[in-house]
Amino acid sequence: MRSITLSISLSLTAFLFGKEPVKPMSQADYVSIWSNVAVEHMQDYRIPASITLAQGILESGNGNSPLATQANNHFGIKCHEWTGEKMYFDDDQKQECFRKYPNADDSYKDHSLFLTTKPRYKTLFQLPVDDYKSWANGLKTAGYATSSTYATKLIDLIERLKLYEYDEKTPANLGKELLAKEIESSKPTKAQSIDADAAVYKAHAVKTHKNDLNYIVARKGDTYYKISQELKVAMWQLYKYNDFGPKKDLLEEGDIIYLEPKRLKAKDKNASYITKREMTIREISQIEGIKVSSLMKLNALTSEESIVPKGQKVLLR
């Protein structure tokens, strides 16, 4: 296994197809999204959170690689005895088989199970959970990756990003730290006059969509994981109910996040949507609270990535 890097130029894609590219995730973005999950898995499986995060960053190109965006595979795990969905990419050999997951959270869980159930990694679990250097070298020795510099790359990431700090945390403490940071960033400046209560974290307001669906509006820095923890909705449900294409986990301020399945059609008779710009059918699905498959059927479209021109009428029922 070796790191899968982003092989498609987003700017070229934007030029050819006239679509604004999705901003690639940075290493800081990736750590912000997945640090709490890595810490939880460390508690459950005794895999250092620093190792999990470093492998995720390295193997997925910060979550931007084709394998990560198309197959939700953040750890470059190949098929082996896999019975689930598969995708084929060039790696050590051409068109090798890789595991495909419904969402990235499942990739993290499978990574933990992969290491804990394969005999060749058994000796790793005799190491201290905070000894990231021995873990990195042990993974290379056990054959996790073919690159001769794999361990060095992991150690460099861990030390440069200070990922070793996560090896000393618990999910509860990390959650408190994230909350403290959010509160700190919301404190008023000297020029402001505001009640002390305003500095207290405020839960997302659950709203009702015109199509009779419960939803919230994403704030800056929101992720499916944070929303899942706050509203007690499983991450797989959030993935299933919402359609954001390759963006996956890093949400944008103002995104509509549904907390229940979208409808098959609009509530109002003769409902339609007139596009104000060139849009994907996924975007319209998210705005109107109607399943992508239903919109495709209603409008005789054959692809979930269909582009609807500006000014076109889209039937909603």
Descriptive report:
This protein is mainly α and 317 residues long. It folds into three domains: 10-171, Lysozyme (Orthogonal Bundle); 207-258, Membrane-bound Lytic Murein Transglycosylase D, Chain A (Roll); 272-315. Helix content is 40%, strand content 9%. It is built from twelve helices and nine strands. The protein has helices spanning 10-17, 27-45, 49-60, 66-71, 104-117, 132-142, 150-160, 171-185, 224-231, 235-241, 281-288, 292-298; strands at residues 86-89, 96-99, 207-208, 214-217, 256-258, 272-274, 279-280, 307-308, 313-315. It has a three-stranded antiparallel β-sheet with strand order 3-4-5, with no helix packed on it. Strands 1-2 form a two-stranded antiparallel ribbon. β3 (207-208) and β4 form a beta hairpin. The longest helix is centred in the N-terminal third of the chain and has 19 residues, at 27-45. The radius of gyration is 22 Å and the shape is elongated. Residues 2-20 and 185-200 have low confidence and may be disordered.
Structural topology:
Layout: H1 10-17, H2 27-45, H3 49-60, H4 66-71, E1 86-89, E2 96-99, H5 104-117, H6 132-142, H7 150-160, H8 171-185, E3 207-208, E4 214-217, H9 224-231, H10 235-241, E5 256-258, E6 272-274, E7 279-280, H11 281-288, H12 292-298, E8 307-308, E9 313-315
Antiparallel strand pairs: 1-2, 3-4, 4-5, 6-9, 7-8
Helix pairs in contact: 2-3, 2-5, 3-7, 6-7
What's this model, at a glance?
With 317 residues, the protein is mainly α.
